[in-house]
Amino acid sequence: MLALLLMAQGQQWPQHSMDRPRPPVVDPGPARSSVPPPKDAIVLFDGSNLSQWRAADSSAAKWTVRDGYVEVKPGTGTMQTARGFGDVQLHIEWATPAEVKGESQERGNSGIFLMTMYELQVLDSYQNDTYPDGQAGAIYGENPPLVNATRPPGQWQEYDIVFRRPRFKADGSLEKPARMTVFLNGVLIQDNFELVGPTANKARPPYKAHADKLPLTLQDHGNPVRYRNIWVRELE
Ligand code: MG
């Protein structure tokens, strides 16, 4: 009722609302094999080593590399790129555990944080209900995906992301918000969405001026999610 009232008043859904309609399910078709990066891409992970990555405290990245992928080692913390990025085209493939454990946010949770603070959610959202602004493909806590184009757990999935960083004025105030366009498995799920600020759980922190380039971070949310074939093209 409250949600309907808010909608009638032209306001947004409350954050993490379970009343919000679920994005329609779209079958994206079978998993494809990895396609090699374009020639001008910066390869961040080619399946062999974590030389481009660090732990949050700048020590060596601690996740497990095996059979061409890297897997979250629960409890070791996030992993971030050694170098910083601003505007990028990012390709990244991921798979949630084939063995299904947990419900909602506890099933196959990880995340891709542009500039360390703007999260595109990674989750097993195949027949796993959760709040729509927290399912796979959501800009976490801000915007659900347009559709749910996830594959079953254990299968490889692909994000293709265009991220435009926020712009700040000389006095530190916001000039232009960050924007994100995302395809999941070839299906458009975020269409040039304007972020309202850094993403957060049960909070909507405002923008705060930051550097033009910051690392790309992958989240350890306690689940052994896998990643492979990670590359970026810098845009300016
Ligand atoms: Mg997450």
Tell me the quaternary state: single chain
CATH fold naming of one domain:
Jelly Rolls
Mean pLDDT: 95
Question: What percent of residues adopt helix (DSSP H or I)?
Answer: under 10%
What order do the SSEs take from the amino end to the carboxyl end, as H and E? HEEEEEEEEEEEEEEE
Number of helices, counting only DSSP H or I runs of 4 residues or more: 1
* Structural class category: mainly beta
Task: Tally the beta strands.
Answer: 15
Characterize the main sheet. Answer: 8 strands, antiparallel
Based on the structure given, which CATH architecture of one domain is correct? Sandwich
Binned strand content: 25-35%
Descriptive report:
The protein has 236 residues and is mostly beta strands. It has a domain at 77-236: Exo-inulinase, domain 1 (Jelly Rolls, Sandwich), CATH 2.60.120. Helix content is 3%, strand content 31%. It has 1 helix and 15 strands. It has one helix at 2-8, and strands spanning 42-45, 53-55, 64-66, 69-71, 79-81, 88-95, 110-114, 118-122, 157-164, 167-168, 174-176, 179-184, 187-194, 217-218, 226-234. The strands form 3 sheets. Strands 1, 3, 4, 6, 9, 12, 13 and 15 form an 8-stranded antiparallel beta sheet that branches. Strands 2-5-14-7-8 form a 5-stranded antiparallel beta sheet, with no helix packed on it. Strand 10 (167-168) and strand 11 (174-176) form a beta hairpin. The longest helix has 7 residues, at 2-8. It is globular. The mean pLDDT is 95. Bound molecules: magnesium ion (MG).
